[in-house]
């Protein structure tokens, strides 16, 4: 492992590490545009030039490997002059449209010009003007702003494995262009907006919607499939404005597919019910939480007294958090003695899509199948049990926005005496409920998922739900406490602690220990 000095600071790095990455990893900032840790080296922007002892000229730190005994200077007069010259060159044709650019506030050209550039421009000629291109899908190419870092081009080559963009022409006339006959409708396209260091590639979905400095940022986990991509929810005024990937080199590296990136629109547009509902005169009517809980408690207490719990089945969900599935088990197994547990999960068809860079989109479109199976078991076919007459009472925890039932399944539900549904919308199953309880979705609650790779990861509430909509774990906890006054759990963290004590594979884990990158479960 080579040991080198950067600005007088002695550091040791892995063999093969670039000088730039070594500096960044140790808190030493070197400006750069073309370099990205998950893309091949281009060395084209020249902004990361540094001075290395015994080398006759400045070298690009992104393309220079750290070597033992190397002495690097990142802030000498020679380096500063080179940076100013390069920034002046990049700004020759760059428009001064920061006030209307979506990238303002997170633009590297803004930041580096302020830190390293000149306060004045010597350029007096007219700037070059190029028309904005619509590249298809959600992507606009503001050609005037491009600094030709080629990150977008290399993303498709290195990560996706299929070229969509290229650099057309040469020199002063160089231009990012899309291959003939193609549009940027690829399911990974949103990533090129994130990695563009300036406001060249813009997402129509976010265009002119908000200034980035007005957005709060909350760490979360994508519920779109079992990959469990790490992401940031960016929001204000209790509304999500965009979702961006969050680095986790073990799970999704720096990437997020477009399905997960725009998934929040499904929740914005869903026709949710926002108060508890009870069935009267064959219709679902509004109820209050006290009344709804009382109806459920009285029916469960009657079953327990009459020793008819065997007639009940509980269906957890691969879309629910670990904490919600765990409380289902605690309430209905440990407290009431139910032994019929099933897991609702989507049908899995086809094969996982693995891209050149290793990023995977799983065909399992639920975020927590492994967690639900670990806690509740792997039985899924509760319909057969209903058909055989083994179930009279059904407790169903949904959260699957794509849930639909066949006519045969709807007829089977009519055989049941009592149905309780926890869900977002009055879907086919909820419409048959005796009591329907509105629950929060992933952006409105805290919790954890166990992804396809058995990595336990937590997500946090970004939004405040409607007044009468509660987290599923909170509803279940209130039912639990109605039967057992000794229950001490109050928060999601308490539930996780209890879960870690009672589930062997989770022993020693706490909500705090999960951290931002999750914990690998053996």
Measured as a percent range, the helix fraction is 25-40%
Structural class: alpha+beta
Alpha carbon gyration radius: 28 Å
Spatial shape? elongated
What is the averaged pLDDT score? Answer: 95
As a percent range, the share of strand residues is 15-25%
How far is the first residue's CA from the last residue's CA?
A: 30 Å
Uncertain spans = none
- Give the biggest beta sheet: 7 strands, mixed
Secondary structure tally, helices: 15
Number of strands: 25
Taking strands numbered 1, 2, ... along the chain, how are they ordered across the largest sheet? 15-14-22-21-20-16-17
Provide structural commentary:
- There is one protein chain.
- The chain is an alpha+beta fold.
- The protein is 26% helix and 19% strand.
- It has 15 helices and 25 strands.
- It has helices spanning 19-25, 77-90, 108-116, 151-160, 190-195, 258-261, 264-269, 289-305, 322-335, 369-376, 382-387, 407-413, 472-483, 492-502, 511-514; strands at 3-6, 9-12, 49-52, 59-60, 71-73, 133-134, 139-141, 165-168, 175-178, 201-203, 216-221, 230-236, 239-245, 277-280, 283-286, 312-317, 341-344, 353-354, 360-361, 393-397, 418-423, 435-438, 447-450, 455-459, 519-520.
- The strands form seven sheets. The chain has a seven-stranded mixed sheet with strand order 15-14-22-21-20-16-17, covered by helices on one side. It has a five-stranded mixed sheet with strand order 2-1-5-3-4, sandwiched between helices. It has a three-stranded antiparallel sheet with strand order 6-7-10.
- Helix 9 (322-335) runs parallel beside helix 13.
- The longest helix is centred in the middle third of the chain and has 17 residues, at 289-305.
- The chain is elongated, with a radius of gyration of 28 Å.
- The mean pLDDT is 95.
């Amino acid at each position: 492992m080579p040991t080198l000095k950067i600005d007088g600071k002695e550091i040791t790095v892995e063999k093969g590490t670039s000088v730039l990455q070594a500096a960044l990893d140790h808190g030493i900032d070197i400006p750069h545009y073309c370099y990205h840790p998950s893309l091949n080296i281009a060395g084209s922007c020249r902004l990361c030039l540094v001075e290395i002892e015994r080398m006759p000229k400045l070298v690009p730190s992104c393309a220079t490997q750290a070597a033992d005994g190397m002495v690097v200077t990142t802030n000498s007069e020679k380096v500063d002059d080179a940076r100013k010259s390069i920034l002046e060159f990049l700004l020759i044709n760059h428009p001064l449209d920061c006030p209307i650019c979506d990238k303002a506030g997170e633009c590297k050209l803004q930041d580096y010009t302020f830190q390293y550039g000149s306060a004045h421009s010597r350029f007096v000629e007219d700037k070059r003007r190029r028309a904005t291109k619509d590249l298809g899908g959600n992507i606009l190419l503001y050609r005037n702003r491009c600094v030709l870092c080629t990150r977008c081009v290399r993303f498709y080559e290195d990560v996706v494995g299929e070229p969509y963009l290229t650099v057309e022409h040469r020199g002063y006339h160089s231009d990012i262009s899309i291959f003939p006959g193609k549009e940027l409708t690829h399911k990974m396209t949103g990533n090129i907006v994130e990695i563009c260091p300036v406001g060249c590639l813009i997402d129509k979905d976010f265009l002119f919607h908000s200034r980035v400095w007005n957005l709060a940022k909350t760490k979360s986990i994508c519920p779109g499939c079992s990959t469990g991509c790490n992401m940031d929810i960016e929001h204000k005024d209790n509304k999500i404005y965009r979702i961006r990937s969050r680095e986790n080199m073990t799970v999704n590296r720096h990437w997020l597919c477009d399905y997960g990136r725009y998934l929040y629109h499904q929740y914005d547009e869903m026709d949710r019910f926002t108060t508890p509902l009870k069935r009267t005169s064959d219709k679902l009517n509004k109820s209050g939480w006290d009344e709804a809980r009382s109806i459920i408690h009285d029916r469960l207490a009657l079953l327990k007294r009459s020793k008819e719990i065997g007639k009940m089945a509980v269906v957890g969900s691969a879309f629910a958090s670990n904490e919600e599935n765990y409380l289902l088990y605690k309430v209905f197994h440990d407290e009431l003695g139910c032994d019929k547990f099933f897991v609702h999960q989507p049908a899995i068809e086809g094969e996982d899509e693995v891209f050149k860079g290793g990023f995977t989109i799983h065909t399992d479109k639920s975020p927590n199948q492994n967690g639900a199976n670990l806690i509740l078991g792997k039985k899924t076919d509760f319909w057969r049990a209903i058909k055989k007459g083994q179930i009279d009472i059904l407790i169903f925890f949904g959260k699957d926005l794509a849930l639909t039932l066949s006519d045969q399944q709807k007829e089977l539900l009519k055989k049941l005496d009592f149905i309780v549904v926890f869900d977002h919308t009055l879907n086919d199953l909820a419409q048959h409920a005796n009591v329907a309880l509105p629950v929060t979705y992933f952006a409105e609650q805290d919790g954890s998922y166990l992804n396809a790779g058995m990595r336990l990861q937590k997500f946090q509430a970004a939004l405040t739900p409607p007044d009468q909509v509660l987290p599923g774990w909170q509803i279940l906890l209130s039912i639990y406490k109605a039967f057992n006054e000794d229950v001490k759990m109050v928060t999601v963290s308490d539930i996780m602690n209890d879960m870690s004590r009672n589930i062997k594979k989770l022993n020693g884990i706490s909500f705090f220990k999960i951290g931002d990158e999750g914990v690998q479960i053996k």
